[in-house]
Amino acid sequence: MSLYPLLLSPLVVGGITLPNRVLMGSMHTNLEETRDWNRVAEFYAERARGGVGLMVTGGMAPNREGGVFPGAAGLFSAQDIANHRVVTDRVHDAGGRIAMQILHAGRYAYGKECVAPSPIKSPISPFPPHELDEEGIEKQIADIATAAARAKEAGYDGVEVMGSEGYFLNQFIVTHTNKRTDRWGGSYENRIRLPLEVVRRVRAAVGTDFILIYRLSMIDLVPDGSTWDEVVMLAKAVEAAGASILNTGIGWHEARIPTIATSVPQRAFTWVTKKLMGHVGIPVITSNRINRPEIAEAVLAEGCADMVSMARPFLADPHFVRKASEGRAAEIAPCIACNQACLDHTFAGKISTCLVNPRACHETELVIAPAAEKKRYAVVGAGAAGITAALTLAERGHDVTLFEQSNQIGGQLNYAKEVPGKEEFHGLVNWFATMLERSSVTLRLNTTADVAGLTSFDAVVIATGVTPRDPQIPTDARAQVVNYADLLSGVAQAGQSVAVIGAGGIGFDVAEFLVEKSPSATMRPADWRKEWGVTDPELKRGGLTDPEPARAERQVTLMQRKPEKPGRGLAKTTGWIHRASLQAKGVTMIGGVNYERIEAAGVRVSFGPGREGARLVPADTVVLCTGQESNRALADRLVAAGRVVHVIGGADVAAELDAKRAINQAMRLAATL
Ligand code: NAP
Ligand code: SF4
Q1: For the chain, how far is it from start to end, CA to CA, in angstroms?
Q2: Does ligand 1 have an atom closer than 6 angstroms to the CB of 581?
Q3: Hey, which of 289, 290, 291, 336 would you mutate to test ligand 2's pocket, going by the most ligand atoms within 8 Å of its Cβ?
Q4: pTM for the full model?
């Protein structure tokens, strides 16, 4: 019997039988904007081959003013329809099903032409929207219905009408953004007139036996959001208007509460979807922070939903469903919810990919093919780069030995997994362990590779990683100074008052480690909701209440030399979460310091080129988070001995070392050897 009997059971939606209850949720990857339709088709076809029940495309603009940014993709011409045919044909040939998301961004559109119910600028866009008149509203509805008809013509199995996350339809629904006094504003009946009219007109445009998903904001997480009664009323009305299935939206994009980041507890919002079960006759989909089949199965078993949406997990592993159904769930590459290669890329205008799986969105270009000539490879260092290189070389048929001088694999990932809110990194290290076990790679732990011991190999890949940098600050003998690696691995401990030197990604992580109690709030969902101010939308509009930050475990000061606010260089989609979390725990952040001396009582600092305002930052422990230096000694010795070496990961470039670059570089190298 299947381990996931509910997840892998069929579901009839819109006259179409889906083979299982797994939806690949919409993701804007910027792929469609490349206009390379073979590449787009291969991205979706690969996931269709992996067995997902239904996929939803990234958001397609219904018109120019509704596009997320100028030039956003949409079905505007016969050529566009023909291009999308390439995608739907390929998906159908692969045995899959695909719906197109219609996304009207309203005031979130990054362009001067953006439109909205009322002329209120959003906090996340520089462009004030134009208030729509009656004629303008009719145009938007007609354009959305036309987009749906064109989606059908292009061969899609359905459409998803994006009605959540604070986009155009959502903007009409709540008084936060709708101040109108005509028939499109004022009472709740008036405010939901537009989304209901959209659903009716879309249904009329596509006919029956065509999937119409409506993505409904079930907890807005913004001031003046919907009440629970209103959510239920809208859900019933959307069903009556012709939707075949309801998908869950959690939080507006402008909400100051994280909803998908790695520090959000797993399945953190399925309780919200569960509240809707029984109120409507059509199936309901739940979403957010579900990344493993056993979690999805539990969500269904507990009656939280009829179907489960996962999006980023399908970047990490296109064959998620197939592996689950074949009893190989341990082989599913885990999405660690880091956003580093997906959403952070999307917002930077780059094509999304995945930290764990660099082939995501690069299927046509990064191909792992059998090697023409089999060789014996030594890979030295079993961190993210070394493991990826070893696995990829072995997959291609090479004979691979992986050397690791410590007693465990994982390298720097072993520090990351100790950081509160980064527990998902355990899953990544475990997955690497499983894949190594099930591969032909010979793993030699507790083995220091040297030049003599490597002579029998045809070539060597060096992934010897990094060593924490010692910034050489004058230090008193009695001062208690540790580096981040020793602190996070438990070799060294910190006192009650700590100064952290260096406010990069690791400085922020270490500060979190010092102020947060164990296990972290990520593992305690009720406390996590309290800390961020999330409540039941039945109790407070939009599910928003006053945050109750937990008491910090220690007093921490985080410092950097750059004369700017610490944390500015952190990632776009998650940096604000780290900054807000530390602020809530009273961490003092200081930029523009010179480190004069580390003393027993703290760090003596001064400010500016004139070294003015000298003072002591009190601390009983000082933690160094001042970057890393490459471990290249073995590589240099091998080169001196005339050997062919390939250097990857932190051993290659220590600056801005991260797992995304290490894994990508390792896979790309191994694909060519
Ligand atoms: P980093 O981001 O380069 O930060 C190093 C910090 O040390 C900086 O604040 C730098 O700032 C300071 N520093 C450098 N040399 C120094 C010196 N000689 N004396 C005193 N201060 C010095 O490096 P990291 O924090 O070690 O992180 C390494 C990489 O891991 C990052 O690039 C990041 O990609 C990755 N990472 C990412 C995340 C994430 O959340 N995405 C989390 C952790 C790590 P000043 O020069 O201004 O003092
Ligand atoms: Fe998940 Fe990170 Fe990959 Fe995005 S980059 S899909 S969040 S693992």
Answers
A1: 42
A2: no
A3: 336
A4: 0.97
